[in-house]
Each structure stands twice: as structure tokens, then as C-alpha cells.
Amino acid sequence: MSAGAQGERAASGLPVRGAGESAAARFGELTDVQAAVQRTFADFADRELVPVASRLDEKGELDRALFKKVGELGFFGMRYPVELGGSAADTLSLCLAAEELARGWLSLAAGSMMQALMGTWLVYRSGNAELHERLLKPAILGEKIGTICMTEPDAGSDLKGITTRADPEGDGYRITGKKTWITNAPVADFFTVFAKTGKTLSTFVVEARTEGVRVGRPIGKMGVRSSPTSEVFFDGAYVPKSQRVGDEGQGADYLAEILPQIRTVTGALALGVGRAAFDAARRYSLERKQFGKPIAEFQAVKLKIAAMATELFATEQVVRRAATLADRGASSAGVAAICKSFASESAARVCDDAARVLASYGYSTDYPVERYLRDVRFTLIGGGTPEILALAIAREALEGAP
Ligand SMILES: Cc1cc2nc3c(=O)[nH]c(=O)nc-3n(C[C@H](O)[C@H](O)[C@H](O)COP(=O)(O)OP(=O)(O)OC[C@H]3O[C@@H](n4cnc5c(N)ncnc54)[C@H](O)[C@@H]3O)c2cc1C
User: Fold this and answer.
1) Which whole-number Å values give the CA distances from 289 to 76, 249, 295, in the listed order?
2) Which three-class secondary structure state does DSSP give residue 125?
3) Which of 92, 226, 232, 242 is nearest to 164 (CA)?
4) pLDDT 10s digits, 181-193
5) Ligand 1 pocket check: which of 145, 157, 193 to mutate, most ligand atoms within 8 Å of Cβ?
6) Residue-wise burial string across 54-83, b where 16 or more C-beta atoms lie within 10 A, e elsewhere
7) 157 Cβ neighbours under 8 A, 6+ residues apart
8) What is the DSSP letter of 323?
């Protein structure tokens, strides 16, 4: 086996797979369609993302050309019905595609996942044919960009503390408040906004061009630098009732619906970054010589390689299982929380070990490992911190599930 080649495969199920054929695919655990999805996005990541990700990430902006290509591969429509321009793919396929995109470049994968799920899901769930035509169909093609506005400066983990208000006026509402940490906000055409209607929470689709909507400057970030994130200000922005999603007061139900989905796919994103870090550390350990031999021959380095392979093997099983349970309608808030928590903590450890294997080169911006180490921390935070996920897991565990 040569040390440097991308895409070489181990006979075992261990995660030695630059070109993306996973243990599940190797052992025939994926359907033909799922395996084809995985191959398509793995090839795209290897050809179009891996070679340019570090250089483009320094720009700190969404790469519209690559974003469009992700759309052309069908990623943005995977969760939506064929009649709306989607492909009605299952959650496992979405996770396989997300994992490969994240292996290539987490910034682009995060922005793309926002578009494929969080930023468009509630427009779809509105059931409003006019919104489907005007916003969802173009979003599936990557021609319009959507995002989700839950977080506020004083309401992060505690979304019950949202203070953005939607006050009834005429045949609609005026929305007033401030959101923060909104992925893709600087490039968004529309926002799904959670706002209080009296004491309850409701959800609205607000277009960026609406009078009273203003996007702040991008927030400087440690990682996922090319997934732009901003504050969004709503200063009495008027939306007609037809842009309310569901009934007044249904916002909490929609949060309960979307958060487990976000958490399952974030597990897949974390797995992708972890695999990228493992690939880099493995190749480096076979090539780098010290004391006259490849560092992979030293037991201390072998222990790190073994630890990383073990983490990724386990993480792959957790993410696949959570996605499969979601497809069977058998997942739960606890399972989705386990998926994100396990995968992001595990991937963070793998990225740290990889940086140690590369030592000074893991600290150098000439190698991608320092970026993986910075980027992976996003998967720990976005969609809920490990502490908040632990509350969801404990709640179910104490009730006797999962
Ligand atoms: C890069 C990035 C992109 C993001 N994109 C979006 C987006 O597009 N849309 C969006 O709405 N949000 C987005 N977010 C926001 C993200 O979901 C929140 O940052 C996250 O939910 C945590 O909120 P917080 O940062 O305010 O932390 P806080 O809630 O202030 O938490 C601070 C600390 O206290 C702990 N803590 C809080 N409450 C409890 C508790 N009850 N028990 C134990 N510990 C607790 C937390 O675990 C954490 O360690 C993004 C965040 C990042 C970093």
C-alpha cells in the first residue's frame, strides 16, 4: 500500500478511505442509491474541494461558484419531493453526502446544509404553494439562499427566551428584534424567523428585501470562516399572514421538528471533518521520517492512529444508525442529541490527535490540519452545545428510552 494515494482502501472496515467508500458501502450495507450518492459527493470533494479548500477559506466568504455546483449535484433538493424539484432522498443519503462535503471543506458543507435543510425546511412545511414557487424551488436550484433565525444575543441555548416579537397589524405582522450567529445571512434572500406572538412562539418567512430588515457585518470566527455569519435586525418588518408557517403558537412544535434533524446531519458533518483529519495524519505518519524510519513505526504514533480509527469507526456506526432510525420514523430527540454529541466530541478528539501527529506541520497553515482543528469546533456548538444535548439525552434515558 503506498502512503500518499487518496482513495486507497483497507480490506478491513477501518476508515482508510480518501475517496469515500465507507465500511458500510464496503460491506454492502448501503442501497445502490445510497452508495451512488456517497460516490458522487466523495468524487466531488476529492476533485473540487480538497485541492482548494484551505486557500479559499482564507477569503472568508461563501464561494458562490462551488455552492452552485453543490446545487447542481442535487444536494439542496434531497429532502424535498420530486414535484418541487427535489429527489425525496432519505436521511441516510443526505448524511452520506454531507459527510463527504465536510471531508472536503466544512465551510462549504455548513453553508450547503443550511440551504438543504434548516434554511428551507419550514418554507416547505408552510405548505404555501406560492412560497414554494417563489422561494423553495429557486432555493433547490441554488438560485436563492435561505437561512434560519433562532438565536438572539440573549437567547442561545434558551430559545424560550426569544424576545423578537411579531405584532399583529392588518392582515399580517410587524416583526421587531435582533437575531445573531445567522449562517449565510450576508448572502440570504430569505429568513425563517422565530418570534413571539404574545406569549407563544411562531415562525415566519421574511424576505431579505423587506423594508425594516437589515443584515449586520459578518462576525469574525475561529473556524468555518467561509460560512459567513451575521446579526440580522428586524425593525418593524411587515409580513403578510400568508408568510406565517402553520398556526400562531406552533413555533415550539417546529423547533422540536427541526432541531433533531439539524443534530443528526451535524453528526455527519463532524464525521466528515474527523475523516479528513485522520486521512491527513495517516498519510503523514507513513511519509514523515525521524530517527531513520517513518514515524508510523513508533508505538506512540501507532496508539494515536489506533485511537483515531476507533473513534471514527464508532462514530460512523452512530451517525448511520441515527439516520436510519430517522428514516424509519423511529428516531427521537435523544437519539439525535447522541448523534451530534458523540460525533462532534469524537471528531474534535480526532482533529486534536491529528494535529499532534503532524506536530509543527499540524500548526502550519500550509497543511489543512490546523483548519480541521478550528473548523470542527463549529460542530460542537451549532444546533446545541454538548451540555444542552446531555439534557435531552438524560431526559429520555431517565424515561426509559432510547
Ligand atoms: C458558526 C456558528 C453558526 C451558527 N449558525 C446559526 C444559525 O444559522 N441560526 C441560528 O439560529 N443559530 C446559529 N448559531 C447559534 C448556535 O446555535 C448557538 O450558538 C448555540 O445554540 C449556543 O448558544 P450560545 O452560543 O448563546 O451559548 P449559551 O446558551 O450562552 O451557553 C453558554 C454556555 O453555557 C452552557 N449552558 C447554557 N444553558 C445551560 C443549561 N441549562 N445547562 C447546562 N449548561 C448550559 C452552554 O452549554 C455553554 O457552555 C450558530 C453558531 C455558530 C458558532
Assistant:
1) 44, 63, 6
2) helix
3) 232
4) 999 999 999 999 9
5) 157
6) eebbeeeebbeebbebbbebbbbbbbbeee
7) 384, 385, 387, 388
8) H
Handedness of CA 366, 109, 382, 326 (dihedral sign): negative
Q: Which domains does the chain have, with CATH numbers?
A: 23-125 (1.10.540.10), 146-251 (2.40.110.10), 253-399 (1.20.140.10)
* 228, three cell numbers: 459567513
Lookup result for grid cell 508505538? 299
- Tens digit of pLDDT for each residue in 120-174? 999 999 999 999 999 999 999 999 999 999 999 999 999 999 999 999 999 999 9
**Per-residue confidence (pLDDT) for residue 352, from 0 to 100:** 98
The answer to whether the beta carbons of residues 173 and 193 sit under 8 Å apart is no
**Which of 113, 178, 375, 385 most suits a substitution to test ligand 1, by most atoms within 8 Å of the C-beta?**
385
